[in-house]
Amino acid sequence: MGFFKWLARELRDMPASFPTAKERRYLKSLETREQLDDEQFYQQYYEHSGIPDDLVVGARAELQRILGYNIQALHPLDNIAVIFDDLDFSDVMYRMQRRFQIPLRFKDYAGKIDGTFDNMVRYIHQVRVSNA
To answer: Does position 14 have pLDDT exceeding 60, yes or no?
Structure first.
């Protein structure tokens, strides 16, 4: 891999700014929660949801890449859009669109996405099913 490709990947995966006080509090709270690997997270929160594990695991991995922080202790109802002030949730949805190769248009999800991981995953699942 060339230097510029490496640099572009590293910069893409870095947090956009230093964490705010609210973000630091959230990140600190993650330290007190149980860290779940992908299988544990899926089993605890989504096993009986009908949502495939590749979507849940993939969305969590992509969100971690976007945020640049370890979110192994993420709870599905954590409102990422509210916690991370500089996060552009339309960018999150764009990255999910690219990852899962499905159409996620702003005009379709505006007002339907509340910023929680759970809501986002359920919406992506709904789009995947309707486009299958």
So the answer is: no
What is d(CA 40, CA 69) in angstroms, rounded to the nearest whole number?
19
The per-residue DSSP string of 69-86 comes to S--TT--TT-BHHHH-TT
In the chain, where are the structural domains located?
Answer: 38-130
Distance CA 81, CA 113 (A): 10
- What is the four-CA torsion angle of 24, 66, 132, 44, rounded to 10 degrees? -40
pLDDT digits (tens, 9 = 90+) for 18-27: 778 888 888 8
The shares of helix, strand and coil residues in the chain, as percent rounded to the nearest 5, are 60, 0, 40
Q: Which residue has the higher pLDDT, 39 or 26?
A: 39
Q: How far is CA 55 from the centre of its chain?
A: 11
79 beta partners: 116
Q: Which fold has domain 38-130?
A: 1.10.1200
- Read off the pLDDT of residues 114-129 as tens digits, 9 standing for 90 and up: 999 999 999 999 999 9
Backbone angles phi, psi at 86, to 5 degrees: -90, 0
Q: How far is CA 82 from CA 39, 50, 60, in A?
A: 27, 27, 17
